[in-house]
Each structure stands twice: as C-alpha cells, then as structure tokens.
Amino acid sequence: MAKEETKSPQVEVPPEENATTPEVTEMKNRLEKAEQQNIELLRTLAEFQNTRKREARDLEIERKFSHSKLANDLLPALDNLERALGAARQAGDKSPLVMGVMATQMQILDILRRHGITPIEAQGQSFDANFHQAVTTRQTADIPANHVLEVLQKGFMIHDRVLRPASVVVAQMPTVPVEKNGGE
C-alpha cells in the first residue's frame, strides 16, 4: 500500500501592509471602546454594590441604636426610683409601697435589657474614662487608687456603646497615712 499524501489547503495571508485596512482599524477601535465601556460598567456596578452594602450597614446601625433617645429620657426616672429605694433602705422601710417601687424599677431595667440597654458595673472597678465620669476624688486606703470608690449615678450601655457614663468618685492614695476602719 502506498501512502497517500494529503495536501493541506493553502491559506493566503495578506501581506503586512494590507493587515491594517480601514476595516481592521475600525474593528480595533470598536474593540477598545467596548473594553473601555466594560471597565466603566464594572466600576459603576462595584460602586453601586458598595453603596448598597454601606446603606444596609447604616440602616442596621440606625435600627440598633434607634431607641437611644427614649432610653435617655427614661434614665432620670429610673434614677429617681433608685434614690427613693436608697432612702427607703436607709430608713429601714420595707412596706408594700417600697416593694412596689422596687418591682417597678426591676421591670424597667428588664425592659431596657431586652432592648440592649444594660447598666455599667462601676463599683470597685478600675477607673476607665471610656465608661466612667469622675466627679471627684477621695483619699482612702480602703480600696486601691484609681478605682471607683462610689457610684453617684449609674451609667448605661446600649449594645457596645456608652449611652451614659457612670458618674463616680475615684479613690486616691492618701497623702498622709490613714488608718483603715477598725485599726488601732
């Protein structure tokens, strides 16, 4: 058997000078323009998506903290309940009226807690200007310096933000040695 040789068809390649015909140049220009439009479209799409994400994030933050004003308006009433209970405790009053005030205070605190509003625990804690507002200092040897000696007004957080800092008295080291309570 003899091998048959197959000839591949000859394709005429235009000479180099004919490669830049006006049609080819037009097609290149159209391709460049289409690529540029595609880049601009992708950039616009990315900006739009970023804007939507930012708006969704802003809306979520607005929803999360939307009841801040109401909480700030309620806190003075809660402070008054706290003062009334403190006065009743000092007087040794355990009447049904005091129990009712205490139940009301607990109910308000529970409602606030359900909405992400919680008291700042400050008593005996190290002073932190992010959570505490120092009203004054007092010399004492009872607790370490720069710790909260007394809470004058409770502070509150709303989720991860301070709604109202705790107003506190901060302990200071005595300049003259002070005897501890019960010392000789």
UniProtKB/TrEMBL annotation:
<dbReference type="GO" id="GO:0000774">
    <property type="term" value="F:adenyl-nucleotide exchange factor activity"/>
</dbReference>
<feature type="coiled-coil region">
    <location>
        <begin position="24"/>
        <end position="51"/>
    </location>
</feature>
<protein>
    <recommendedName>
        <fullName>Protein GrpE</fullName>
    </recommendedName>
</protein>
<dbReference type="InterPro" id="IPR009012">
    <property type="entry name" value="GrpE_head"/>
</dbReference>
<dbReference type="GO" id="GO:0051087">
    <property type="term" value="F:protein-folding chaperone binding"/>
</dbReference>
<keyword id="KW-0175">Coiled coil</keyword>
<feature type="region of interest" description="Disordered">
    <location>
        <begin position="1"/>
        <end position="24"/>
    </location>
</feature>
<dbReference type="InterPro" id="IPR013805">
    <property type="entry name" value="GrpE_CC"/>
</dbReference>
<comment type="subunit">
    <text>Homodimer.</text>
</comment>
<dbReference type="GO" id="GO:0005737">
    <property type="term" value="C:cytoplasm"/>
</dbReference>
<dbReference type="GO" id="GO:0042803">
    <property type="term" value="F:protein homodimerization activity"/>
</dbReference>
<keyword id="KW-0143">Chaperone</keyword>
<dbReference type="InterPro" id="IPR000740">
    <property type="entry name" value="GrpE"/>
</dbReference>
<dbReference type="GO" id="GO:0006457">
    <property type="term" value="P:protein folding"/>
</dbReference>
<keyword id="KW-0346">Stress response</keyword>
<comment type="similarity">
    <text>Belongs to the GrpE family.</text>
</comment>
<dbReference type="Pfam" id="PF01025">
    <property type="entry name" value="GrpE"/>
</dbReference>
<comment type="function">
    <text>Participates actively in the response to hyperosmotic and heat shock by preventing the aggregation of stress-denatured proteins, in association with DnaK and GrpE. It is the nucleotide exchange factor for DnaK and may function as a thermosensor. Unfolded proteins bind initially to DnaJ; upon interaction with the DnaJ-bound protein, DnaK hydrolyzes its bound ATP, resulting in the formation of a stable complex. GrpE releases ADP from DnaK; ATP binding to DnaK triggers the release of the substrate protein, thus completing the reaction cycle.</text>
</comment>
<keyword id="KW-0963">Cytoplasm</keyword>
<dbReference type="GO" id="GO:0051082">
    <property type="term" value="F:unfolded protein binding"/>
</dbReference>
